[in-house]
């Protein structure tokens, strides 16, 4: 197994670590208060691990391409790791009542729809590469999720709704990039 695939696997193994620090109450770690909101150090750890895991998404792809290490295993694991990470955290944020369920449904549905499109294309020997809008979507989702984990810290100090703005931006870009994938690749969709 090459380095790029090991990094991708590390991202998969970081998903339960994020979940543990996000969902389990570690009262002994303590907390701090910002603008009327209590943020636990456990949430800070969850955010840091989430960001590290998210960064590995770009890192494994860069290493695979630059060192000519692109493999079928990597092509399978990389999108799987991305979906696991973002879906697990979104569902957790819904459970914690920090995110409306419809937002998680829209984002997760788009991820599965585009994955399905890619599978149909792959069956026909075609590869659907990530678009610029798709990459922006990923960045906005990561920023939005991190802001939600940290309960809008540090922006809560100034009562600036950064997390809410990022969630809306992520939802809009998720929809726009999903539509773009389907419009650009409509030839792949079999008509009954």
TrEMBL record:
Taxonomy, superkingdom: Bacteria
GO cellular component, one term: plasma membrane
EC number per UniProt: 2.7.8.5
A biological-process GO annotation: phosphatidylglycerol biosynthetic process
Catalytic reaction annotation: a CDP-1,2-diacyl-sn-glycerol + sn-glycerol 3-phosphate = a 1,2-diacyl-sn-glycero-3-phospho-(1'-sn-glycero-3'-phosphate) + CMP + H(+)
Transmembrane segments: 7-26, 38-59, 138-155, 161-183
Topology of this chain in the membrane: Multi-pass membrane protein
Any one GO molecular function term: CDP-diacylglycerol-glycerol-3-phosphate 3-phosphatidyltransferase activity
The entry's keywords: Cell membrane, Lipid biosynthesis, Lipid metabolism, Membrane, Phospholipid biosynthesis, Phospholipid metabolism, Transferase, Transmembrane, Transmembrane helix
Pathway the protein takes part in: Phospholipid metabolism; phosphatidylglycerol biosynthesis; phosphatidylglycerol from CDP-diacylglycerol: step 1/2; Lipid metabolism
Broad EC category: transferase
Subcellular locations according to the entry: Cell membrane
Presence of the UniProt keyword Membrane in the record: yes
Keyword Lipid biosynthesis in annotation: yes
Family: Belongs to the CDP-alcohol phosphatidyltransferase class-I family.
Functional note: This protein catalyzes the committed step to the synthesis of the acidic phospholipids.
PANTHER family: CDP-DIACYLGLYCEROL--GLYCEROL-3-PHOSPHATE 3-PHOSPHATIDYLTRANSFERASE 1, CHLOROPLASTIC (PTHR14269:SF62), CDP-DIACYLGLYCEROL--GLYCEROL-3-PHOSPHATE 3-PHOSPHATIDYLTRANSFERASE-RELATED (PTHR14269)
NCBIfam families in UniProt: pgsA
Record protein name field: CDP-diacylglycerol--glycerol-3-phosphate 3-phosphatidyltransferase
Origin species: Aneurinibacillus aneurinilyticus ATCC 12856
